Amino acid sequence: MKIAAVGEILWDVFSDSEHLGGAVFNLAAHARKLGHEVYFISAVGDDARGRAALDRMRELDLPSRFVQVIGGQPTGWVSVWLDAAGQPDFTIHRPAAYDFVTLSDSDLAELSAWRPQWLCFGTLHSMRPQARGLTRRLMDALPDTRRFYDINLRKQNYTAELVEELMKAADVVKLNDAEAVEIQRMYDQSCRDLAEFAERFANAYGWEAVAITRGAEGCAIWRQGDWVEAPGYRVQVVDTVGAGDAFAAAFLHGLDSGWPLGKIADFANRVGALIAARPGAVPDWTPEECWALG
Fold this sequence. Notes:
Layout: E1 2-6, E2 10-13, E3 18-21, H1 23-33, E4 37-45, H2 48-59, E5 67-70, E6 76-82, E7 88-93, H3 105-114, E8 118-122, H4 129-141, E9 146-150, H5 160-169, E10 172-176, H6 177-186, H7 194-205, E11 209-213, E12 219-223, E13 226-230, H8 243-257, H9 261-276, H10 287-292
Parallel strand pairs: 1-4, 1-8, 2-6, 4-5, 8-9, 9-10, 10-11
Antiparallel strand pairs: 2-3, 6-7, 11-12, 12-13
Helix pairs in contact: 1-8, 8-9
């Protein structure tokens, strides 16, 4: 599977450590660990964090062909605090280099010739007009590429108008149960449960599939009228940063592989749980470790 992913690359800065992250970057890195070809489209600053980010991408075997180095703008970073349950709170510092990515016509032609099966994007990156325009240019340049939208709402970094634009553009969507509640609030909708939410919004926006994570309780997936719920795996949580992004990569992996819904949901839960049990958004892991969870 070939994936083009566009979004933020940034450092998650904890009180005692820093880990490279960004929602779509994490998805791209985990998809690479699952054996897929990935081009990640973003930018870093001409600074120490930017150089460290490019070094880390090499360690992850993630090509940096479309990661630009932009002078005069800092590499993105986020202050992260964890509560007693390992749940994160974020302060996102902007502007950052990833807000100013540009692609030339030859860049777009190269990506088009590569023929990716999926274009992955999120909300936070597209809050800035230039980044939003970039995502639209990629969609126009890749008309036959299916679109995966990880909604991933961050406080003060989304609007109802932007989320609706991206939902309309998507073929497949991933979100969490709290985001499902927030989306109903934004659009003055009221659903009895997650199954009704998935059915209603998938039909309204033409989605092929939607995955909804439920934290330790697991996930639920809707695909073309079919619905499955799968329980989560109990692990000793270190931090949950990146767990949802890893889930997204595993969900996309199973979906593209044509797996039954139950197998997709179970595998995605396993991957998300494994990442939550390790520090950082993209720790070392293997699919074999995920299947070993019990």
